[in-house]
Design goal:
The chain is mainly α. 80% of the residues lie in helices and 0% in strands. It contains ten helices and no strands.
Length: 231
């Protein structure tokens, strides 16, 4: 084990090409998925928080339930949709990074939307009278509250990125874990461990752990900055 750790550190110190390619693809896929999730989840969560419409409570329950979607189920759904017999089969993107982005985005949109809904709804209770007195429509109120809670929402987006970067089940199904094409850190760790190539698996694990720690530290300092600025 000690030899494997030494070799893993050697791979990191040497900026091993395979290691960098896998880590780089992981970041590209996860960042793309988070961008899509933020563009969809932030306005969706704000709209549900501010809006009053029939079925709102049911929408909240469903959104909260979807936060716990099993990754393999999402991967299976995306696989069926993108397969040759599926409705999106003509796109030909199954077993490509784009399919992995779709799967990750579907997993984290409910997380971003649900957490955004809670944050914006709390802000809406506090500022509702002021916004109504200014004549703000529901849409403008939602946009205003999204801006006012931007620091808290940044931590939501970071949480979504952490969820995406740690995903393995869905991306394995729709990406196929193809070497040099769709192999990301989580799937590579699983594969290399099963093959007995512990140095590469450990090196990727260290990169992933470092990434998670940086995300958590960023979320903490952003929240602290928001508290100091706005009380």
């Amino acid at each position: 084990m000690s030899e494997a750790i030494v070799r893993a550190l050697g791979l990191l110190a040497a900026f091993d090409r395979t290691l960098l390619e896998i880590a780089g693809l992981s970041l590209r896929v996860s960042l793309s998925a988070v961008l899509i999730a933020a563009l969809l989840g932030l306005p969706l969560g704000a709209a549900i928080a501010v809006g009053r419409f029939p079925g709102r409570q049911a929408a909240i329950v469903v959104l909260n339930a979807f936060m716990g979607l099993p990754p393999v189920v999402v991967g299976l759904i995306v696989y069926l949709a993108l397969s040759r017999a599926g409705p999106l089969g003509p796109l030909g993107i199954l077993f490509t990074p784009r399919a992995m982005v779709i799967a990750q985005a579907l997993l984290i949109v409910p997380i971003v939307a649900a957490l955004t809904r809670q944050i914006v709804e709390d802000a809406w209770r506090e500022h509702r009278e002021q916004l109504v007195s200014l004549g703000a429509s529901a849409g403008r109120a939602a946009l205003s509250l999204l801006w006012d809670t931007r620091f808290s929402l940044t931590t939501v987006v970071l949480a979504g990125f952490g969820r995406a970067s740690a995903e393995v089940g869905a991306v394995m199904i729709v990406g196929g874990n193809i070497d040099g094409v769709t192999r990301v850190m989580t799937t590579a760790i699983a594969l290399e461990t099963s093959k007995g190539d512990l140095p590469l698996a450990l090196a990727l694990g260290l990169v992933l752990i470092t990434l998670v720690m940086l995300l958590n530290a960023s979320a903490y300092f952003i929240a602290e900055a928001a508290r100091r600025r706005y009380g």
